[in-house]
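Look over both lines:
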Amino acid sequence: MKLRDQVVVITGASEGIGKATALMLAEQGARVVLAARTRANLESVADTIARAGGQALPVPTDVTDSRQVTALVEAAIRAYGQVDILVCSVGRGLRKPFIETTDEEWAQLVAENLTGTVYCCRAVLPRMRLQHRGLIVNIASRSGRAGEALLAAYSAVKHGVVGLTKALAAEEGASGIRVNAICPGPVATERMRKILPNADQTTWLTPEDVAQAVLFLATSPGHLAQAKVLDLF
Protein backbone atom coordinates (compact mmCIF):
# COMPACT_ATOMS: atom_id res chain seq x y z
CA MET A 1 0.00 0.00 0.00
CA LYS A 2 2.63 2.49 -1.14
CA LEU A 3 0.15 5.34 -1.53
CA ARG A 4 -1.94 4.86 1.60
CA ASP A 5 -3.89 8.06 2.42
CA GLN A 6 -2.55 9.93 -0.61
CA VAL A 7 -5.22 11.87 -2.52
CA VAL A 8 -4.96 11.64 -6.28
CA VAL A 9 -7.01 13.60 -8.82
CA ILE A 10 -7.12 11.80 -12.17
CA THR A 11 -8.64 13.29 -15.30
CA GLY A 12 -9.83 11.11 -18.14
CA ALA A 13 -10.51 8.49 -15.49
CA SER A 14 -13.46 6.81 -17.18
CA GLU A 15 -11.42 4.90 -19.77
CA GLY A 16 -7.99 4.07 -21.15
CA ILE A 17 -4.90 5.37 -19.36
CA GLY A 18 -6.86 7.35 -16.80
CA LYS A 19 -8.98 4.37 -15.76
CA ALA A 20 -5.98 2.04 -15.57
CA THR A 21 -4.13 4.61 -13.46
CA ALA A 22 -7.07 5.05 -11.11
CA LEU A 23 -7.40 1.31 -10.54
CA MET A 24 -3.66 0.84 -9.99
CA LEU A 25 -3.19 3.76 -7.59
CA ALA A 26 -6.32 2.85 -5.63
CA GLU A 27 -4.91 -0.66 -5.26
CA GLN A 28 -1.89 0.96 -3.63
CA GLY A 29 -4.08 2.72 -1.06
CA ALA A 30 -4.65 6.08 -2.73
CA ARG A 31 -7.97 7.88 -2.37
CA VAL A 32 -8.76 8.72 -5.97
CA VAL A 33 -10.89 11.56 -7.31
CA LEU A 34 -12.14 10.54 -10.74
CA ALA A 35 -12.83 13.18 -13.40
CA ALA A 36 -14.32 12.75 -16.86
CA ARG A 37 -17.39 14.01 -18.69
CA THR A 38 -19.56 10.89 -18.52
CA ARG A 39 -21.04 10.28 -15.08
CA ALA A 40 -22.12 6.68 -15.70
CA ASN A 41 -18.64 5.60 -16.77
CA LEU A 42 -17.04 7.36 -13.80
CA GLU A 43 -19.43 5.74 -11.37
CA SER A 44 -18.63 2.34 -12.88
CA VAL A 45 -14.92 2.86 -12.21
CA ALA A 46 -15.67 4.13 -8.69
CA ASP A 47 -17.82 1.06 -7.99
CA THR A 48 -15.01 -1.24 -9.14
CA ILE A 49 -12.61 0.49 -6.75
CA ALA A 50 -15.08 0.40 -3.87
CA ARG A 51 -15.74 -3.32 -4.35
CA ALA A 52 -12.00 -3.90 -4.04
CA GLY A 53 -11.95 -2.01 -0.74
CA GLY A 54 -10.67 1.33 -2.06
CA GLN A 55 -11.96 4.88 -1.91
CA ALA A 56 -13.05 6.79 -5.01
CA LEU A 57 -15.00 9.98 -5.59
CA PRO A 58 -16.48 10.45 -9.09
CA VAL A 59 -16.76 14.10 -10.14
CA PRO A 60 -18.12 14.64 -13.68
CA THR A 61 -15.89 17.33 -15.18
CA ASP A 62 -15.16 18.91 -18.55
CA VAL A 63 -11.52 19.93 -18.19
CA THR A 64 -11.86 22.50 -20.98
CA ASP A 65 -14.08 24.55 -18.62
CA SER A 66 -11.96 26.27 -15.96
CA ARG A 67 -14.92 26.67 -13.58
CA GLN A 68 -15.59 22.94 -13.65
CA VAL A 69 -11.91 22.23 -13.01
CA THR A 70 -11.94 24.57 -10.02
CA ALA A 71 -15.03 22.79 -8.72
CA LEU A 72 -13.27 19.43 -9.18
CA VAL A 73 -10.35 20.44 -6.97
CA GLU A 74 -12.68 21.97 -4.39
CA ALA A 75 -14.65 18.71 -4.27
CA ALA A 76 -11.44 16.76 -3.67
CA ILE A 77 -10.44 19.05 -0.81
CA ARG A 78 -13.91 18.94 0.78
CA ALA A 79 -13.92 15.16 0.66
CA TYR A 80 -10.34 14.38 1.62
CA GLY A 81 -8.71 17.60 2.84
CA GLN A 82 -5.76 17.61 0.46
CA VAL A 83 -4.49 16.96 -3.06
CA ASP A 84 -1.19 15.12 -3.22
CA ILE A 85 -1.06 14.04 -6.87
CA LEU A 86 -2.64 15.23 -10.11
CA VAL A 87 -2.62 12.99 -13.17
CA CYS A 88 -3.72 14.74 -16.38
CA SER A 89 -4.62 12.04 -18.87
CA VAL A 90 -7.32 13.69 -20.97
CA GLY A 91 -6.26 13.82 -24.61
CA ARG A 92 -7.45 13.45 -28.16
CA GLY A 93 -5.49 12.40 -31.23
CA LEU A 94 -5.79 13.40 -34.86
CA ARG A 95 -4.08 11.63 -37.75
CA LYS A 96 -4.42 13.40 -41.10
CA PRO A 97 -2.39 15.63 -43.42
CA PHE A 98 -1.72 18.96 -41.75
CA ILE A 99 -3.12 21.04 -44.60
CA GLU A 100 -6.46 19.22 -44.23
CA THR A 101 -6.78 20.04 -40.53
CA THR A 102 -9.85 22.20 -39.95
CA ASP A 103 -10.16 25.12 -37.56
CA GLU A 104 -12.60 23.08 -35.48
CA GLU A 105 -10.24 20.10 -35.24
CA TRP A 106 -7.34 22.32 -34.22
CA ALA A 107 -9.42 24.10 -31.58
CA GLN A 108 -10.55 20.77 -30.14
CA LEU A 109 -7.00 19.41 -30.03
CA VAL A 110 -5.75 22.49 -28.18
CA ALA A 111 -8.68 22.49 -25.76
CA GLU A 112 -8.52 18.83 -24.75
CA ASN A 113 -4.77 18.23 -24.83
CA LEU A 114 -3.30 21.54 -23.69
CA THR A 115 -5.89 23.93 -22.27
CA GLY A 116 -7.37 21.26 -20.01
CA THR A 117 -3.91 20.43 -18.69
CA VAL A 118 -3.21 24.11 -18.05
CA TYR A 119 -6.48 24.52 -16.12
CA CYS A 120 -5.88 21.43 -14.00
CA CYS A 121 -2.30 22.32 -13.11
CA ARG A 122 -3.30 25.88 -12.24
CA ALA A 123 -6.15 24.66 -10.04
CA VAL A 124 -4.10 22.29 -7.86
CA LEU A 125 -0.96 24.39 -7.45
CA PRO A 126 -2.26 26.74 -4.72
CA ARG A 127 -3.18 23.78 -2.49
CA MET A 128 0.10 22.01 -3.20
CA ARG A 129 2.00 25.17 -2.33
CA LEU A 130 0.20 25.37 1.02
CA GLN A 131 1.16 21.75 1.64
CA HIS A 132 4.77 22.35 0.48
CA ARG A 133 4.55 19.13 -1.51
CA GLY A 134 2.82 17.59 -4.48
CA LEU A 135 3.28 15.75 -7.74
CA ILE A 136 1.81 16.56 -11.14
CA VAL A 137 2.04 13.97 -13.92
CA ASN A 138 0.99 15.09 -17.39
CA ILE A 139 0.40 12.37 -19.98
CA ALA A 140 1.95 13.70 -23.18
CA SER A 141 3.07 11.58 -26.14
CA ARG A 142 6.01 10.45 -28.19
CA SER A 143 4.67 13.02 -30.66
CA GLY A 144 5.45 15.66 -28.06
CA ARG A 145 9.15 14.80 -28.29
CA ALA A 146 9.54 14.51 -32.06
CA GLY A 147 7.40 15.52 -35.00
CA GLU A 148 5.66 12.71 -36.87
CA ALA A 149 4.12 12.70 -40.32
CA LEU A 150 0.32 13.00 -40.37
CA LEU A 151 0.41 14.06 -36.71
CA ALA A 152 1.57 17.66 -37.06
CA ALA A 153 -1.29 19.31 -35.20
CA TYR A 154 -1.27 16.67 -32.47
CA SER A 155 2.52 16.94 -32.19
CA ALA A 156 2.23 20.69 -31.77
CA VAL A 157 -0.14 20.51 -28.81
CA LYS A 158 1.75 17.66 -27.13
CA HIS A 159 4.97 19.65 -27.47
CA GLY A 160 3.04 22.32 -25.62
CA VAL A 161 2.28 19.89 -22.79
CA VAL A 162 5.97 18.94 -22.55
CA GLY A 163 6.99 22.60 -22.54
CA LEU A 164 4.46 23.41 -19.84
CA THR A 165 5.74 20.51 -17.75
CA LYS A 166 9.36 21.61 -17.95
CA ALA A 167 8.50 25.21 -17.13
CA LEU A 168 6.36 24.29 -14.13
CA ALA A 169 9.03 21.90 -12.86
CA ALA A 170 11.49 24.79 -12.82
CA GLU A 171 8.96 27.22 -11.36
CA GLU A 172 7.49 25.05 -8.61
CA GLY A 173 10.46 22.96 -7.50
CA ALA A 174 11.30 25.37 -4.68
CA SER A 175 7.79 24.81 -3.30
CA GLY A 176 8.36 21.08 -2.99
CA ILE A 177 6.26 20.27 -6.05
CA ARG A 178 7.46 17.84 -8.72
CA VAL A 179 6.10 18.13 -12.25
CA ASN A 180 6.68 15.32 -14.74
CA ALA A 181 5.43 14.26 -18.15
CA ILE A 182 5.12 10.75 -19.52
CA CYS A 183 5.52 10.43 -23.29
CA PRO A 184 4.26 7.04 -24.46
CA GLY A 185 4.20 5.67 -27.96
CA PRO A 186 0.93 4.13 -29.22
CA VAL A 187 -1.25 2.80 -26.41
CA ALA A 188 -3.89 0.14 -26.98
CA THR A 189 -7.01 2.17 -26.18
CA GLU A 190 -10.29 2.28 -28.07
CA ARG A 191 -9.50 5.78 -29.32
CA MET A 192 -6.09 4.75 -30.63
CA ARG A 193 -7.55 1.74 -32.41
CA LYS A 194 -9.96 4.06 -34.22
CA ILE A 195 -7.14 6.43 -35.23
CA LEU A 196 -4.85 3.60 -36.43
CA PRO A 197 -7.23 0.76 -37.36
CA ASN A 198 -4.76 -1.00 -39.66
CA ALA A 199 -1.64 -0.68 -37.53
CA ASP A 200 0.35 -3.57 -36.10
CA GLN A 201 -0.71 -3.45 -32.47
CA THR A 202 1.67 -6.11 -31.21
CA THR A 203 4.23 -3.50 -30.15
CA TRP A 204 1.76 -1.09 -28.57
CA LEU A 205 1.84 -0.29 -24.89
CA THR A 206 -1.12 -1.13 -22.70
CA PRO A 207 -2.87 1.46 -20.49
CA GLU A 208 -1.46 -0.48 -17.54
CA ASP A 209 2.09 0.10 -18.81
CA VAL A 210 1.53 3.85 -18.61
CA ALA A 211 -0.18 3.52 -15.23
CA GLN A 212 2.89 1.67 -13.97
CA ALA A 213 5.04 4.64 -15.01
CA VAL A 214 2.72 6.96 -13.06
CA LEU A 215 3.06 4.69 -10.03
CA PHE A 216 6.85 4.81 -10.36
CA LEU A 217 6.82 8.60 -10.28
CA ALA A 218 4.32 8.66 -7.41
CA THR A 219 6.35 6.33 -5.21
CA SER A 220 9.92 7.33 -6.05
CA PRO A 221 11.90 9.73 -3.88
CA GLY A 222 12.46 13.04 -5.65
CA HIS A 223 16.12 12.33 -6.37
CA LEU A 224 15.13 9.19 -8.33
CA ALA A 225 12.72 11.12 -10.55
CA GLN A 226 14.90 14.03 -11.55
CA ALA A 227 14.15 13.61 -15.25
CA LYS A 228 11.19 15.86 -15.97
CA VAL A 229 10.07 13.83 -18.99
CA LEU A 230 9.77 10.04 -19.00
CA ASP A 231 9.79 8.47 -22.47
CA LEU A 232 7.96 5.17 -23.02
CA PHE A 233 8.79 4.18 -26.60
